[in-house]
Sequence to fold (219 residues):
Amino acid sequence: MQGLQDALSDWKVWWFSAALIVQYVAFSFVIYFPTIVATLGYDTTVTLLLSAPPGVLSTIISFVLSRYSDKKRKRYIYILAPCAIVALGFIISICTMNMAARYISMFLMSQTAAGQMVLWGWINNTFSREPAKRAAAIAMISGLSQTGNIIGSFVWPPTWGPTYRYSYAVCLAALGVSTTMYGMMHLHLKRLNQRMEQDERDGKGIKELLGPVGFRYLV
Fold:
């Protein structure tokens, strides 16, 4: 119970939850991906075949980006980069109905998975010091964030098709908000790291330190 109480009282848990809710609204297109591919004008079989390559590319990039993020011990920059690519995909889809351009935009949008894998690693790292609190925090964030998928189901009404420009605009705005929220968390954790480093240099007692000696948040 102590772990749950600690998680409930930590504002970072609520911040990550809110950011993920907004981000899942932005990523709601994933649920409707075959419907979006169908706007290219092909029959059902070809549409489903065309839906596969963006996912394959996303899987490869997710693996590479996650490994590289761990190697460099950085998180936010490897969340920001895929989000920027996804945003570019949204913008292309808003601006044109050209078949080739829209299919390329689908490859760009599919890079959501890469950022998500790094993000969940970041969340785990942020609450890594207390196992009970980490378990409760991850469960809360994961559960609450699914609200975004419920909201996202209303972003793609058939009346907005086949261009779905309004849907892409909503997703683009939500992506901007969530990425900004992650950026604010990044700056906060970076300041905490600087403070912990300064406290250790000043020789403060163990009880006065913000965390165990040598501990730093991954940012």
Observations:
- The first helix runs from residue 2 to 8.
- Residues 28 and 154 are 9 Å apart (CA to CA).
- The mean pLDDT is 89.
